[in-house]
Amino acid sequence: MAPRANWKGYLRLSLVSCPIALYPASSLSEKVSFNRINRKTDNRLKQQNVDSETGEVVTRDDTVRGYEVAKGEYMVVEDEEIEAVQIESTRTIDIDQFVPKDGSEAAIECLRNALRAAPDYADAMFNLALLLQRNSKHAEAAEYWRRYLANDTQSEWAARASRSLKFCEMQLRLSATSVQR
């Protein structure tokens, strides 16, 4: 099953907008999960909500969210209250500048592991790849050219995408050899 987008909107760089979707960087199939079991019987354990003061089991219907305002003092927060304070969104990510690689690699890697941005439509994928290539982001551009070509191999745009992919791969090889020297 294909991953479901966490967010859909637009990526805007100056006057160019591309529809995109943000997906989790890892899928549930890649995660390992364990169940808690009783060592003596090998039976799976059930988790219950227990009142910390009385020790009684609390049903799901009687469970609400609470914010600790002082030690041991909580303010109940209802779902309606949370929905009421949600911020309006333009559903647009504005790019002011690209982050330079030096000194920021740890932050970029952290974001890369959390979410993946992917174009929502084929022409948006083409435009995003072109934009990245023109800004010398050849590794990222090559990834989007490959995605575009996976969906379109016959159109006139596919030939241009193929040439652009070869150009990006050549630039990556050139930069790798210049680093080795």
Structural notes for this entry:
The protein has 181 residues and is α+β, with helices and mostly antiparallel strands. Helix content is 38%, strand content 19%. It has a 4-stranded mixed sheet. Strands 3-4 form a two-stranded antiparallel ribbon. Strand 1 and strand 2 form a beta hairpin. The protein starts with 6 loop residues before the first strand and ends with a helix. The mean pLDDT is 79.
Category by helix and strand content: alpha+beta
Mean pLDDT: 79
End-to-end distance: 45 Å
The tally of helices reads 5
How many runs of DSSP E, i.e. beta strands? 6
Poorly predicted parts: none
Radius of gyration: 24 Å
Considering DSSP H and I runs of 4 or more, what fraction of the residues is helical? 25-40%
Strand order of the largest sheet: 5-1-2-6
